[in-house]
UniProtKB/TrEMBL annotation:
Counteracts the endogenous Pycsar antiviral defense system. Phosphodiesterase that enables metal-dependent hydrolysis of host cyclic nucleotide Pycsar defense signals such as cCMP and cUMP. InterPro entries: Metallo-B-lactamas, RibonucZ/Hydroxyglut_hydro, WalJ/YycJ-like. It comes from the Bacteria. The lineage of its organism: Bacteria, Bacillati, Bacillota, Bacilli, Bacillales. Residues 13-191 form the Metallo-beta-lactamase domain. This is MBL fold metallo-hydrolase. It catalyses: 3',5'-cyclic UMP + H2O = UMP + H(+); 3',5'-cyclic CMP + H2O = CMP + H(+). Pfam families: Lactamase_B_2.
Length: 268
């Protein structure tokens, strides 16, 4: 079957993604209540009993709000590195020992025929990571919540078939917005979030004949809009000489209030 995935919801208020291959189904982050996660999964025809486990990128509440409740409800193992475990332990509550699984930064783990690899990213969390998923020759990369893309991040995601990548904010909307300046400075910094322009610059550096789609994720409801994000990312790519036809490569949307359709890597 190969890899298929759905971004259940993504944004400043919560994040969760399903990745499956017909043998296993993993969730990346659980940033909503358990009830809301069940509702989002139901829209994609998945129940909690079908989940194999939950991977955690970092400990911020928009990524772990429902983590403990979902894990307890369905008796699921949670995978995170040691520093993330230490940072989120109080927030997620009591778990059985066999639900606490370490997946170190840079390590790989096989879940049946689906291989998962974590890689370090830059964000103001204990030890934040992105994830690569492999099934045969297929590769999906999920990379949000990063202030900038290091050379190692570029190396980790450059050969993906499909990429879920942050495009958090429009710089001018953020600067003119109602947030206090210390919060704006955090978002704009190297431990914050990628702007539309920064995402476009990154895409211009890694776009190749293999990458077919990039899903723009973690959009701020205060300081971004879907159409603006797509237009700005594409414009930043073109400013750097990176032109493409939609038949060759496509910028795709994610939503803060509903799932994306299933994307089956082998079918496109």
């Amino acid at each position: 079957m190969g890899i298929q995935f759905s971004v259940l919801s993504s944004g400043s208020t919560g994040n969760a993604t399903l990745v499956a291959n017909g043998e296993v189904t993993l969730m990346v982050d659980a940033g909503f209540s358990a009830k809301r996660i069940d509702e989002l999964m139901m829209e994609r025809g998945v129940t909690g009993q079908e989940l194999t486990g939950i991977l955690v990128t970092h400990e911020h509440s928009d990524h772990i709000k429902g983590l403990g409740a979902v894990a307890r409800k369905y008796n699921l193992p949670i995978y995170a590195n040691e520093k993330t475990w230490a940072a989120m332990e109080k927030a997620i509550g009591n778990l059985a020992d066999d639900q606490r699984c370490i997946l170190g930064t840079g390590d790989t783990r096989d879940f049946g025929s689906l291989r998962v690899e974590s890689f370090a990213i830059s964000h103001d969390a204990a030890e934040p990571v992105g994830y690569n998923f492999y099934d045969g020759k297929e590769k999906l990369s999920v990379c949000t919540d990063l202030g900038y893309a290091s050379d190692k991040v570029k190396e980790a995601i450059c050969d993906a078939d499909v990429l879920v990548l942050e495009a958090n904010h429009d710089i001018e909307m953020l600067r003119m917005g109602r947030y206090p300046w210390n919060i704006k400075r955090r978002i704009l910094g190297d431990l914050g979030h990628l702007s539309n322009d920064a995402t476009g610059e990154l895409m211009s550096e890694i776009l190749n004949g293999r990458l077919k789609r990039t899903y723009l994720a973690h959009l701020s409801r205060e300081h971004n809009m879907l159409d603006l994000a797509k237009m700005s990312v594409r414009g930043a790519m073109e400013d750097r000489g990176c032109f493409f036809r939609d038949s060759e490569f496509k910028l795709c949307e994610t939503y803060y209030d509903r799932p994306t359709p299933w994307d089956v890597l082998s079918e496109r």
